[in-house]
Amino acid sequence: MRDLVRSFGKGLTSVFFAAVIIWALMLIILPQLTMLEKALTKPLRQLDSSIAGGLERDAADCANILGQYTEPTEGAISTGGLAVPSASGMAVPSMSGMTSPTMNNTVQRPYILQCDRSTTRRQLVRDKGMAAFLDQQYGLPRLSVAADAPIDKQIAVAREIEAIAAGLYIRLQAAEASESQLGLDNFATIGKPVLIPRSAEAQAVSDADLSSKVLTMIGLRYSQDGEAYQRIGLETLTRTLFFAICATLLALVVCYPIAYKVALATSPEKAVWLMLGLIIPYAIVELMRIYAWTSIIDNRGLINELLLWAGAIGEPIQFKRSALTVFVVIVYTYVLFMVFPIYNVMSTLDRNQIEAARDLGASTRKLHWRIVIPHSKPGIAVGCIATFMLAAGAFSVPRIISRGLQSEWFSQTIYNKFFEVNNSNVGAAYSLAYTVICFVIVGLFMWIMRTRLKDFARVQ
Amino acid sequence: MHGKSITLDEVGVTYPNGFTAVHPTSLMVQAGEFFSILGPSGCGKTTILRAVSGFVTPSTGRILIGDVDQGNKGPNERETALIFQNLALFPLMSVWENVAFGLEARGVSRRDRRAKAEELLYLVALSDQADKKPGELSGGQRQRVAIARALAVDPSVLLLDEPLSALDLKLRQHMRAELRNIQKKTGVTFIYITHDQGEALTMSDRVAVMNEGRIEQVGTADQVYSHPVSAFSASFVGEANQLTGRIVQASGAMAQIETKHGRFVGLNPASLAVGAEAIMFVRPENVAFECQSNTLTTRLLRRDLEGPFVNLFLQTSTGADVSMHLPNTGAMDGLSKTDVSVGFTPEKATILPSGPVARTGQDIAAQ
Asked: Distance from B117 to chain A by nearest Cα, in Å?
């Protein structure tokens, strides 16, 4: 601190510190805290007040629909179970021609969803195995709109329910605002088993699959009472982590020789060209870089056309369905994050050590195993961590390459939770859990590789 | 361990960029010999060493170790071990693992490796340092680890690339004796590369003087120092006063040279004929006061005291620089600054054909 003041002066130092504080606060601490709060909060739609509010809206809609409903004078009406509340369409008596002599005075109106849902005996969202209803919970009269009652009676009941629900809604909201709604339910949904309806044949096909066997073995799939269940969230998470590790390993296998070549086995003048070749693809926008691959791997893409033309295959290969394709594109997309850390450390290796090892009779394998790899270990660790984190968080690659033809990656699941379904609390829980799990994996990896944090500074 | 002879048969090295580092050279190093190659930096001596160890492929000629042509053998297949200028110890391995690395590469079991490493560490007096990392050792100890590591693979030839240049003076002098000692004990052929003539002269059985990719002279230290055969040899090894001129008279072993500073008589080992361009070399220690022949009248420019010796720097009125190297006996305390008469006996002066001479410190500093 004092050194900084001496070097840059008070003004610049305070600007620097202010920038650091603003950055840490606005971009790290606050967003994470917001995310944490969101993850711990029950989704809004599960709150009792939301249910009361929903009931209020339903009852109001029901009353309004019924109000516009012109009673058929001839006492005959279609009983078609349509939820469409349009009065005009329904009131055409000639259409059905169905006279029901048994219902002379009791009027049969068409089915109206909102009226059906307008009941104080509405189920509340509770933990598994516990059932609770609005009327019991808050001591409401048990009211519901009976479809066979006279229309004005129905409207009256609906209005009554609306009024009760509105009152309850305001009361509950006030209560909920003052009490904490925090809980770990959102996190628990990651491991929640989901019933998968499948035919027996489809089930047999699925069971024969190796990945399915593995997933069954680790308890992510099971069958109970002849029904198949999958813990979809956890399954996607596990698969994504496994895929990310595979992609990282593939990147390491590809990048280690490149880094070695550039750092140690090439004269500096030639290494410039190799370096340039590595960097140029990064001048292209990431999405373009990924899209470029689709023209190669499509069913009518470069590879398939070539193989078809050469007569090597009869049917196009479905690259889009192969996880390997996603790995390859991830490696291509993030190759620099692996190459540069390894390159940077490797280039500090004294070439004399390589010659000394050779001179002492070391084979190429021995040379790498005992000299080059131990020296480059911090770079390998940092490269693996960077690539793993990028691969685990990869969104555009699996989405663009697989186009929905493969199981989604966890990043896609999180995205869907956030935006496609209005379920951002669960999305927040998913992403937080994912971050923590990735950190744990990275920590474990660093411990295994004996990497210290200061190695990061040495590498980059 | 048995040393083997090394034969260089017209070995030349030209790099892909066209630079010829070594002109075709023939050289024979005896088995068990301590052979030094002495030359200024960039003269090609390291290239010869790398060619022998296999890191450089000669563009012409062949290299034999014992009687075996090394033409298609890689560095890891030759019976040579190289000690690098910076030693190139493996910093992440312990001392004994460093020493045993060559055995590890040969698939020797861990227990045997350890035993051999301890044996060699005992040889270089480092038995108690086996489990340390090289970084924890002093310069001299690291030096000895490098030697032990090279000896562990039972090489027939040990190649040393200026291994003492990073050490301080006292340690360097000590390590010279130690290297010589180890070489005697093991009987391995040593090829020692250096630009330090002190090292080359004190340790070697024979010395090769090298300049600009060519070997100028091969001989014992005494031969090279006292009987140089080329101008470069005479000027690079030790110091020498130089008088440039032309032969005016030649008879038997002696010749007379005419310079702008006068006429002088000296040995004529190259049998130069009358009229040939020549340089006369006289060692500073052979210049004396009040000599009968070959006299020069000079004035004293500077007097440097080196403890037991005194260096006098003199200049003639014609501009010739003469340096004198005298034992510090206090005899010239009352020396006058002008009209100093010095000379040298003809038997101590050598006349050699003119050619490139070694650059002096002044030349290098002027660059």
From this structure: 14
Q: Is residue A316 within 8 Å of A300, Cβ to Cβ?
A: yes
* Structural domain contains residue A187: no
For the domain that residue B254 is a member of, what is the CATH number?
2.40.50.100
Q: Does B82 touch chain A (CB under 8 A)?
A: yes
A188 in a structural domain: no
Interface check B15 vs A, CB under 8 A: no
Beta-carbon contacts below 8 Å between A and B: 62
Q: Can you tell me which residue has the tokens 């089930």?
A: A203
Q: Give the SS3 label for residue B277.
A: strand
Side chain identity at B132, as an amino acid letter? Answer: K
Closest CB to A362: pick one of B76, B86, B93: B76
Same domain, B192 and B304: no
CATH number at residue B97: 3.40.50.300
Residue ranges making up the domain that contains B236: 231-366
Q: Does residue B151 sit in the same domain as residue B188? A: yes
Residue bearing tokens 């090829």: B191
With contacts defined as CB-CB under 8 Å, which chain B residues touch A370?
90, 93, 101, 104
- What domain count does chain A have? 4
Indicate if B298 and B187 belong to the same structural domain: no
Asked, for residue B35, whether it belongs to a domain, the answer is yes
What are the chain A neighbours of B82 within 8 Å (beta carbons)?
A: 355-356, 359
Instruction: Collect all residues with Cβ–Cβ distance below 8 Å to A242 and sequence separation of at least 6.
Output: none
CA distances from A16 to A7, A36, A267, A307 (A): 12, 29, 41, 58
B104·A363 Cβ contact <8 A: no
Residues A299, A23: Cα–Cα separation, whole Å: 46
Cβ-nearest to B86 among A352, A358, A371: A352
Q: At what angle do helices B139-151 and B110-123 cross, to 10 degrees?
A: 130
- Give the range of the structural domain holding residue A139, as residue numbers without chain letter: 44-178
Asked if B86 reaches chain A (Cβ–Cβ under 8 Å), the answer is: yes
Classify residue B1: in a domain, yes or no: no
Do B52 and B171 fall into the same domain? yes
My answer on whether A406 and A454 are in the same domain is yes
Relative to beta strand B34-38, strand B189-194 is parallel
**Which of A355, A361, A374 minimises the CB distance to B105?**
A361
> Is the minimum CB–CB distance between B243 and chain A shorter than 8 Å?
no
The CA-based dihedral angle spanning residues A76, A82, A85, A89, taken in that order and rounded to the nearest 10 degrees: -60
Tell me if A418 is assigned to some domain: yes
Please report whether residue A208 resides in a domain: yes
CB contact under 8 A, A357 and B80: no
Nearest-CA distance from A204 to chain B in Å? 52
Residue ending a domain, choose from B226, B260, B279 = B226
pLDDT in single tens digits along all 367 residues of chain B: 578 888 888 889 998 888 888 888 888 998 889 999 998 888 888 899 889 988 888 898 889 888 888 888 888 888 888 898 888 899 989 999 999 998 998 888 999 999 999 988 888 888 888 899 998 988 888 888 998 898 888 888 999 988 887 778 887 888 888 888 888 888 899 999 988 888 888 889 999 999 888 888 999 999 999 888 998 988 888 888 998 999 998 888 889 998 888 889 999 888 888 888 899 999 999 988 877 888 888 888 888 888 888 888 988 888 888 898 888 887 666 677 778 888 888 888 999 988 777 777 667 677 6
Query: Do B295 and B250 belong to one domain?
Result: yes
Closest by alpha carbon to B243, among B191, B316, B188?
B316
